[in-house]
Specification:
Blueprint: H1 3-8, E1 15-18, H2 24-37, E2 43-47, H3 52-64, E3 69-72, E4 80-85
Parallel strand pairs: 1-2
Antiparallel strand pairs: 2-4, 3-4
C-alpha cells in the first residue's frame, strides 16, 4: 500500500520505514506524507543513506523541517537515518529555505 492511501484513511503509525523510491523528488514526497502519518514522538526511518539523493533529502529536512523534525544521529544501523517528529509543522504556506 502507498503512503497516500494511508493519509486518505487518516491512519497513524508510531514508526514508518521508507525504503521505496530513491530519487530526490520521491524522497521529498514520501517524507511529506510520512510526517502526516506519525504523531509527535513518532519515528521515520530512511534507508540507503549512502545515496546522493538521500543525503540531499537529509540536508533539505535539516534546513526546511528543523522546527518539526529532529534528525537523530545514531551508529547502530548502517545506512539508516532516524527522524523523530518533535512538533507539528507550523511553517508558513510559502516557507522555503534554499539548500545545497
Amino acid at each position: 500500500l502507498s503512503l497516500a492511501s494511508f493519509t486518505k484513511s487518516r491512519s497513524c503509525f508510531d514508526v514508518i520505514l521508507l525504503d521505496d523510491g530513491h530519487k530526490f523528488e520521491e524522497n521529498i514526497m514520501e517524507i511529506t506524507l510520512a510526517i502526516t502519518l506519525v504523531p509527535i514522538g513518532g519515528v521515520i526511518v530512511m534507508h540507503d543513506t549512502w545515496m546522493a539523493s538521500i543525503k540531499a533529502t537529509k540536508t533539505w529536512i535539516a534546513q526546511n523541517l528543523g522546527n518539526s523534525i529532529q534528525i537523530v544521529e545514531q551508529k547502530f544501523a548502517r545506512n539508516m537515518m532516524v527522524l523523530v517528529k518533535i512538533a507539528p509543522d507550523d511553517r508558513a504556506w510559502d516557507h522555503f529555505v534554499p539548500f545545497s
